[in-house]
Amino acid sequence: MDKINIFNTTDELNEAVVSFIQLISKEKSHFSISLSGGSTPKALFDYWANAEQNPEFWEKTKLFWGDERCVPPDDEMSNYGMTKQHLLDKVPIAEKNIFRIHGEENAEKEAVRYGQLIDKEVTPFDLIILGLGDDGHTVSIFPPTIDLWECPETCIVNHHPESGMPRITITGKVVNKATRVIFLVTGANKAEKVRDIVLHREEFAVRYPAALVNPASGNLYWFLDKAAAHLL
Ligand code: 6PG
């Protein structure tokens, strides 16, 4: 089921992701994406901003986030803030197409609001881009709280296991309902988890939330650099 794509350089990886997005969105009049946060997407967003200046693409595309830290949008920890800096400020996308998680609001209330928005606007997502933590987490569902993956809610509040920072995150039902899911993973520090999940998913499904990503569509794509893929 997993479609594995391995690239020698970050540029080749990002070019392939942007081409993939252009291909799958080509025939659609509306296109919804849930973006990942953290640091990996920064290079993709910089590349994407340079490669995609077509107003028609950004007019039909709605951007959401799979998770957000509970901080203001201008905080250096904000996934939206990172995306604004590396992508949104550099492409012709209208505010009406950007659906950020309000990390500065009451977390429980915002999780409900954002879940209702997703249920109303985009279920299922055309594309969900996921990152992979070096502990096997994805979105903001971590190994110690893996049971939250099966929550009936669309969006919930969770906490980072080390820092305790509150996060708002979509749940497994949203991810596994998506038409297509991409894992965007770079760096040797992720290689063991990539191997565990791609080659031994069943064994690690009890430990790693990322191993529970299993879209009903069957469309799970890995976009990896050589370092992240070197144990495959
Ligand atoms: C976040 C994420 C998270 C991220 C992984 C990988 O808010 O941090 O969305 O799931 O994708 O932790 O993060 P890096 O790309 O920084 O390694």
Q: Mind explaining what this structure looks like?
A:
The protein has 232 residues and is α/β, with parallel strands linked by helices. The protein has one domain: Rossmann fold (3-Layer(aba) Sandwich). It has helices at residues 10-25, 41-51, 55-60, 79-86, 107-121, 172-175, 191-199, 201-204, 226-229, and strands at residues 2-7, 31-35, 61-65, 67-69, 127-130, 155-159, 166-170, 181-185, 220-225. Strands 1-9-8-5-2-3 form a 6-stranded parallel sheet. Strand 6 (155-159) and strand 7 (166-170) form a beta hairpin. The two termini are 15 Å apart. 6-phosphogluconic acid is lined by residues 36-40, 66-67, 79, 131-133, 137-140.
Overall outline? globular
Percent helix range? 25-40%
Structural class: alpha/beta
Number of domains: 1
Q: Summarize the biggest pleated sheet.
A: 6 strands, parallel
Assembly annotation: single chain
Contiguous helical run count:
9
Major sheet: arrangement of strands: 1-9-8-5-2-3
